[in-house]
Amino acid sequence: MNMQSPPNVTDMPEQVAFDRHELGAILSLYGRMVAAGEWRDYGLSHLREAAIFSVFRRTAEHPLYRIEKRPKLRNRQGMYSVIGMDGQILKRGHDLRGVLRVLERKLIKAVE
After folding, report:
1. What is the pLDDT of residues 93-105, one digit of tens each?
2. Sheet hosting strand 89-93, strand order edge to edge
3. Per-domain residue ranges for the chain?
4. Which helix (H) or strand (E) holds 31?
5. Which InterPro entries match (predicted)?
6. What is the pTM of this model?
7. How far apart are CA 26 and CA 36, in angstroms?
């Protein structure tokens, strides 16, 4: 009989969080979108499996977008993703700034 010891509690993180550089990139985009009048509020969730930055147009509604970090997907599709209001994944990848570009397109407007 082969008995395996349970995983060490210190091996598993209590929760996933954005680091300072990731949060800086997200808040930079957030500030530009607030200045453009597109976004008004945000929420942060740090869970065991994911860190989620939710963006709202108004405070009391469903998020317009969710920016998620899921470290378990690091070796697959990439641990960063942008998810729309309907749950559709708009962009996924290994580079956070590259993933956020899908939201920056909203800042580009035609000048007459």
Report:
1. 999 899 999 888 7
2. 41-46, 51-56, 65-69, 80-84, 89-93
3. 14-106
4. helix 20-35
5. DUF2794
6. 0.78
7. 15
